Amino acid sequence: SSHEHKLNFRKSKEECLSYIQDAMLQKQWKRAADFLIFYTESLEKDFSKEYMGPAEMIWRIGTEILCHHSHSSMKEFNSFIEQMKTLGVKRYLKVCLEHAFHLLCNGLIDEAYQNLSLAESWRFGEQTAIQDKEMKLIQAYRGLLDYYSWSKQKTVLLEHGQDGFEDFSVEQEMHSCFRKAAVNLKEIIKIPGVWDLFVKCYVDLLEFYGDHNEARQVLSEYAYNSKFPANPNAHVYLYQFMKRHGESKKSLISALKILHDIVPSHELMIDFNTMLQKSKKRKKRRLGLEVIFAGLDYAGWKENVKAWSCLARQVKQIVISEKHLDWIKQEWNSRKDWWPAFHFSHYLAKRNWQGNESLSYEKALVAGILLGKDCKYFKYVSHQGCKAQVKRFRILKKFVNKHNPAYLRISG
Known about the structure:
The protein has helices spanning about 1-25, 30-45, 55-70, 75-85, 90-105, 110-120, 125-130, 130-160, 165-190, 195-210, 210-225, 230-245, 250-260, 270-275, 280-295, 305-320, 325-335, 340-345, 345-355, 355-370, 375-385, 390-400, 405-410. It is mainly alpha-helical. It is extended, with a radius of gyration of 30 Å.
């Protein structure tokens, strides 16, 4: 029956797609290509009225296969992608964008630029307005390539100076690239989204020509506009800009405080801790201790010598002054059940000692204060250091033994 025929046909198509997926997952690109050919041929016999989105699947699957197939060439890829552009106006700009990405990945920058320029001039009735976001992406990536050209011209000028007719023509070309890049990059970053690369390039253009106020405004908007998704990089770029232009420590601390709230394990938290420790305000020094403890809660910081050095220095200062031991106690109370196994095991003591003497020293100091002179980590490292006749380890051992009462107060 006609109904049974349709069911069988649909089932065979689904099985074929399943075989293609299996082949791709196993990186059997020739097998996947064979099945795709069968799938494409079967669609020509498909008289069902149900929309299955075959063009979308052929485009995405075919692109993936051609990117990995051992016998695939750029000529074949270009031919395939041009056919995909004619399969439907709804995805025309997306296909153009992917084509440009593939050309860029293969170092064909001029061809990618030409492809984006042609896509930008595309018009198709109402579809032009519907695909407004895709068109803005096309323009933005063309702006990115204009920025790339500008950057190359800038390098030529900086290396050879600005004398002579040749350099004048280079400078003119550079300004032309700047204008084209700035227009398109400025447009894309107005749309709420994550535009890290575009923002960095636009700010670089503005800074080079001395428009620092505009650059500051762009970065502030990118970081603080509630319509944009939460993005740690936005705060990093703003902080780096502020630091480059010598803004006050108060402003820098405010920027890093927001970053800390979003990503307490960010590498800039070491800079944040350093600034806070240098502050004369007790509240900020207290925050500094909280920041460094929070960073060391993450596995990525386990062997970060700078982080352990920051914590060791601040903890040592507190113990010597015998002031604010309650700060350490408050931080330690929530960690004493899991930090010993996470940071201060006998196994880690041996591994740290063999791999990095400075790391083992800083950690041993912290371990001795937090867990006392009988801590496995401290005992092993201090013994090895004294055995190796390293003076600072003898001093470390004496310090921890002398201030063992501080451990008793911290452990409560």
